Amino acid sequence: MAGDSSHPSDGAGATIRRTDYRPPDYLIDAVDLDVRVDTDTAVTAHLTIRRSDTAATDAPLVLDARDLALDEVAIDDEAVAAQRIAHHAGGFTVHDVPERFRLTTRCTIRPEANTALEGFYASGPMYCTQCEAHGFSRITPFIDRPDVLSRFRVRLSADRERFPVLLANGDCVEQGEDGDGRHYAVWADPFAKPCYLFAMVAGDLARVHDRHTTGSGREIALEFYVDHGNEHLVGHAMSALKQAMRWDEDTFGLHYDLDTYMVVAARAFNMGAMENKGLNIFNAAYVLASPETATDATFEAISAVIAHEYFHNYTGNRVTCRDWFQLSLKEGLTVYRDQRFSEDLLGADVQRIEQVRGLRAMQFPEDAGPTAHPVRPDAYKEVNNFYTATVYEKGAEIVRMLRTRIGEAAFRAGLRRYLEVHDGSAATIEDFVAALAEAAGVDLEPFMRWYAQAGTPRLQLSREWDAAAGVTAITLRQWTPPTPGQPDKQALPVPLRMELLDGEGRAMALPEHPARVGDDLLMMTDETLRIEVPGDAPVLPVCPLAFSAPVILEGDYSALDLQRIAVQSHDAFARWDAIQQMHARAHAGLMRDDASALEPLLATMQRIAAAPPGDDALCAHLLAPPRAAWLWEQYPVVDPARFTAAMREQKAAIGRALCGPFTVWAQRNPIAEGQAGARALANTALEYLALLEPDAILALARRRVDGTNMTLTMGALLALSQTRSSEFALASSAFYQHWREHPLVLDRWFAVRAGAAHTSPEQIRELLAHEDFDWRNPNRVRAVAATFARENLAHFHTEAGYALYAGILERLDGSNPQLAARMCRPLLGFARLADPWSTMQRERVRDLRARVRSVDVCEMLDAALA
Ligand code: TRP
Ligand code: ZN
Questions:
Q1: Which residues lie at CB < 5 A from ion ligand 2?
Q2: Which listed residue (309, 366, 397, 859) is catalytic?
Q3: How far apart are CA 47 and CA 44, in angstroms?
Q4: Which CATH architecture has domain 1-204?
Q5: Which CATH number among 3.40.50.2000, 3.30.1490.20, 2.60.40.1840, 3.40.50.300 corresponds to the domain 458-549?
Q6: Which of 26, 634, 760, 789 has its CA 20 to 30 A from that of 472?
């Protein structure tokens, strides 16, 4: 399998190609594990193996095995002589095996020495697993690929005092004393599954439980396992889980299929959460919350991640992926499902704005940078590098386009059909698209291009008004810029929802047209599309409504057009987007010392502030500053010093222009549960005003940090962090004193410090040396390092900033390559930096490349250096 990221190599892993897929030679029908949990954990596996129909009779048995001490191999209870075992990087081969046999292996693993957090590892005092994508072969030798599905039975034994809780997938079928102060539990999972969905946990954890009765009348026990003392922080996640279960029953008719659903919160976790069958393991940051400790954004994120992992039980677990190139089959689809859940729960308009804001800040830069790849990649060295915004979020956008094209009824029928036909097996993206196409009776084959082609398509929109004929001609032209390895691009099918505004700002119906497939939906299938709209005044086209396709619209809009869209469109996304475009134009002007493009932006924002929409959350979005990462994408080459200065100048100008309404909003103190929108608005207002540093606002922010609502506390602390005021240091140390015993809140303290406008690289070094800093905890590492690179652009883009960041990556490369690789991105954009930054950063990356060893990090750096 993919190169062994734990063994320092020279980074030269083998390239795995999608088109090289071959079905497995051997299948493993049953897995019987005996795990004696301890500092040295002994794992005995009995595997029931048979040769597949498609394999040659002399096919050797190739097992994956990484970072484990192999003590014994036996076939049908007979030891296999050492010379019959050929070891290779990442596993071993045995020749001349029978057609059916029982393979027994014994090995030893050391959870506490496992800093990669893949396989069986220590997360604080508890031991837990992470098997996706290739962690299982760090626990026991196996055919570690998702198209090998097996029934698992696990016997766990451990010291009762140290590890009173023993969990694995499925049902606990037996437990008892094991002598010597040890106890045991036997778990059996009735569903065959790929080994990446295996999980086990041993720890001293508190259990919080509840019940859910499915629509079909099944009683399900819901159990959360958390550190003692955190029981009171589980309520929100528990209710989100119940809502998600109900939602999937109501929306897609999908009911949970085991008697117990367990969620374990881990302190040390590489990503957000993992959908292991019946036993999710979560980053504690996506479980634990109360209004005192977590922000409204975290509450939303918890609901979304809880739902995401739950929804995987069908889209991912019951039907899994044939190979890792199909990753978006489960991830894109499941993100789409969790987005729909959040829309129903919290309101579609604001959710859609938040989704696009995230996509543009994370996925668009990826699609325009050196690591751009298709939603279904063609090749990889380390699959962990492909758990990306492209595979997840752009993948979800493709599913959304498919749904837009075929409608809800056909989508539901097609999804159900897909799950029925492929239940208990490993599928491909073609299987999914074919099921939708069949249900809809529509040819969806052209959409496969979205999976194959990298890069964000541009959509140029231009208008011509023929006064004599009374016709507005609207021309759309699509093109996609080249990406690494894909110089030439094809036209894509683009479902384009469009609104036409007449001179009075009223919506007009779309004219009859062969491309029109719904009331407001045009299906663009070629490079260009032209429609003619009759009327006695020019019409203003607005698209893509609700961001119906993940494209960059380049409209020939005047400032006045954008202003009209911002106030007249009936589509919340389009209003927000028009203001975003005005922000981009204003910023581009300021980069050239031209402040004139600020005028229409300020005027529009003032109009919105004077007549705000009823929904405070929407109002906060309409008035929020754009994400820096998206603004950055507007330029072919960026001078980071000018870029950040222009951003500050722009925000200050907005603060001055909207000082009146902002002061009113900032002074509100909305602490009730249902007032998240008002909190967002108060924080946005404070963010702008604090930059002007008036004493009254600084004092207000300083007081607010000491309040009891974390959303307001963080809003105030973040606002202060962007000022030169001494109130920031005071507020920050008060916050630290108050929260130093609470790891998740302390992560926020580290993040605010690292992202503060005046924190130098030298001060970042002090944070890394802080007594509460912990290199083994990814949340803490990200809080300092990733926040520094993302938020503190003025200091990151310096010789010292690059050196510091490269040093952090080098250190992580040796301990946790997966985390290191996921954090490379800030150093990979040098091709689009102005000099001297470009040269400085490239040299740093070259130097780093010579020092790192993991395939994970090397694959990322090589993409940028290519
Ligand atoms: N499948 C997980 C999800 O989407 C994510 C995941 C993949 C993951 N690899 C991981 C989580 C490694 C933690 C560690 O929810
Ligand atoms: Zn997922």
A1: 331, 334
A2: 309
A3: 10
A4: Sandwich (2.60)
A5: 2.60.40.1840
A6: 634
